[in-house]
Amino acid sequence: MPGESCQAMIQNKFIQDLQNIGLTFNQARGYFHLLQHSNLNAAELSARSGIPRTRVYDVIRELQVLGLAEEIRGEVTRFKAIPPRQGLGRIEEGWRTKFGLLDRLTESLDRLYASAGKRLDPTSYMEVLEDREKQVRRMNELDGMLKFELIAICKPPFDRSFEKFTEKETASIIRKGINYRFLIEMKDRKQTTLLRNLRRLEELGARIRFDAYLPVKMSVFDSRLVSFYRDEAGVAEKNSPLIIMSDLTLVKVFKTVFNLLFEKAGSLSA
Questions:
Q1: What is the per-residue pLDDT for 192?
Q2: How far apart are CA 63 and CA 29, in angstroms?
Q3: Are both 58 and 107 inside the same structural domain?
Q4: Which of 18, 63, 88, 179 is the most exposed place for a label (fewest CB within 10 A)?
Q5: Element of type H or E holding 80
Q6: How many CB atoms lie within 10 A of CB 134?
Q7: Cis peptide before 156 (omega within 30 of 0)
Q8: Residue ranges making up the domain that contains 28
């Protein structure tokens, strides 16, 4: 019926908008239906929203952590939505924190970039690559030299083969005995090939989370080397210089940034 079709379109638009500000598909569906039908138990929320029964309790807990839902205690535990102005205000505050972090990080990197050529410290090291093929090849070389840890904030176009089609190529990213943590920028949850390959990496031992927007594209290799792109706004451009540095202060800064973003990011199972 036309009315039902219109209602479905409105619902889909709200859910898409909630995803665009960082919620997962299931979180967006859960919050939308809690707003529409207050005081639902888990089974009712699952039935109304389409969230699988096996996932609905996880989604409710995630919404509670995000400050978007709360529990109503009684004989049967029920849940209700936090009013949007209050609940989504926390997300807005999180975005302001991210953008503030980006501003501070960009300012720090600008100073490092400007002064790098003047350094006399014999322990310092910097490498700048502008050719895209050389950038990807060098990142693969550094990945192959890992001894114990890689943490990476990854934005398209990816430096690693997350979008390769074969299981062999995907598995080649991971080596046993190394701690891998990847934070992936992914705006569209319909990227089935990418999602499938990321889940393979999780099965092989990597820890992976995602966000709709990430403020920087960077990697830290064995708490020793860092790589980042000079122009955040031009990350997708081939001529955006890739900078690789050995700088323990920068390592600490990037690891702090990564841990803050990783803690707040969504999981692939959500």
A1: 77
A2: 11
A3: no
A4: 179
A5: strand 78-81
A6: 11
A7: no
A8: 2-82
Enumerate residue ranges in the chain where pLDDT < 70.
1-5, 92, 94-124, 165-169, 188-190, 231-239, 269-270
Residue where the block lists tokens 């199972």: 269
31-53 pLDDT, tens digit each: 999 988 878 899 999 998 889 88
Residue 47: count other Cβ atoms within 10 Å of its Cβ: 14
Strand 218-221, strand 225-229: pairing = antiparallel
Contact indicator for 128, 243 with CB cutoff of 8 Å: yes
- Residue-wise pLDDT for 195-223, tens only, equals 888 888 888 889 999 888 888 899 999 99
Query: Residue 174 in contact with residue 180, Cβ under 8 Å?
Result: yes
88 falls within a domain: no
Question: For tokens 């535990």, what's the residue?
Answer: 77
Tokens coding 59: 């989604």
Task: Name the domain boundary from 33, 55, 82.
Answer: 82
Counting Cβ atoms within 10 Å, is residue 100 exposed (0-12), middle (13-18) or buried (19+)? exposed
